[in-house]
């Protein structure tokens, strides 16, 4: 009896020990490679708007094999590229991570700062003194999930960012990245923050001039043109033509446009995405990504920017946007097949999301009978200046209206000992009366403002005292600031068309499914952290999407 009891006891402990051990082994299990894909300006509804037109290997494969968080919202304003990329990778918001716009003003110096600007570094693979190369992540104040992966694996994981846009490559790759590559005049470049010279394979890739090949050809529709959306037609008033084009219709003569626009033109064609994914494959192969010992994943952060340039230029109901997504779908399909071969199906984790969406062209909405408009920033700001000059006896107390925020000239106001509170009150009451303005609120008093709760929270999250303006403007739905053209479109607002983004995870450890629970852009980094068993980024305010991680 005694013996029997002891045996049982031993068996029990062996069982507990081996169970615990297998759990531990399981917990250290990680994918070989993580690929983050940001599709710049991809509205959530593009997953379904073009669903029937997609092939089986790209977006459809992600939806059919992966897990989709259908209602993922951006929890801050303004909804711009640099902030989106920063938030996806930090799980944080401008109030904390400090990227308050693509550009912002530093309160202390009142100097304009570009999100990735770093005058202490120089360009690599380009004119070292050109502005386009003086880039690093130093303005990003919080760690990224890619930084945390480096810390978790004792810097053994390789982290590389790639995008046509510097900010799309640099901010996701974080502070400890091995490299970030972006595109200037059709060539892939980096900065001295990362390296002394471009690796041989990048130089070779540049020499092969894939960009030039595309730009010396035509952009034709991928499928017969009569199968495309036809409500606004191929040639319509809502899109801005490339320079040197008589009509806006397919096939588009890129060679003619190239003469006028230069090689930067690649960014505003779907082939900009094609070349980016081509380079992504080269990076994976040449850097041996995904080939570390188990438990040490590498991370490739890809951002596809052409969708944004094309959306801005041609607006969202154009055949150009439809063709761009059909081509991207095909490119993604080929990219996933490459990952299957190179890393092995099930060995890599991929997630796809967007930094923001886009509005409809306001003229289009007006023509269809909806409320929309262009907010005439210059005229209104001149009117405002008149009003302030009349009341306070000083011109130009406002030195910028940017990111839908009004920046006060605090240096001037302080030196003249004017009443800041009075000035702000005057601006708020003036702005509220302007057509197209739904709300104007003092950033320091957002909590007591009359903003509806979700928008108030977005404004608070977006407000960084040192880098944001003093007064937040909220425009009516489908209104945006006039930027010199009534063609094309833009983004930046709180509304669902700008703030509802796709989030799809696929591959390693991901089961098929979806959730319609409301989740947020800030949940992406904590979800990746949970899947990899690494610490959440140090400014993260999100929560793992438990339907994916459990
Ligand atoms: Zn944009």
Largest beta-sheet details? 11 strands, mixed
For the record, the count of structural domains works out to: 2
Number of E strands: 21
Could you say which overall geometry the principal axes of the C-alpha atoms support?
globular
Heteromolecules bound: zinc ion
Spans of 5+ residues with little confidence (pLDDT < 50)? 12-25
Reading off the top of the CATH hierarchy, the class of the largest domain is best stated as Alpha Beta
Radius of gyration: 25 Å
Second CATH tier, the architecture of the largest domain: 3-Layer(aba) Sandwich
Beta strand %: 15-25%
Based on secondary structure, the structural category is alpha/beta
Mean pLDDT: 94
| Gap between N and C termini | 43 Å
Helix content: 25-40%
The name CATH uses for the topology of the largest domain is: Alkaline Phosphatase, subunit A
Count of helical stretches? 21
CATH superfamily of the largest domain: Alkaline Phosphatase, subunit A
Description:
Strands 1, 2, 5, 6, 7, 8, 11, 12, 19, 20 and 21 form an eleven-stranded mixed beta sheet that branches. The protein has a four-stranded antiparallel beta sheet with strand order 14-15-17-16, covered by helices on one side. The protein has a two-stranded antiparallel ribbon with strand order 3-4. It folds into two domains: 31-365 and 494-549, 3-Layer(aba) Sandwich (Alkaline Phosphatase, subunit A); 373-476, Gyrase A, domain 2 (2-Layer Sandwich), CATH 3.30.1360. The chain is 38% helix and 18% strand. Mean pLDDT is 94; it is low at 12-25. The two termini are 43 Å apart. A hairpin with a 2-residue loop joins β14 and β15 (405-408). It is α/β, with parallel strands linked by helices. The chain is globular and about 70 Å long. The structure holds zinc ion (ZN).
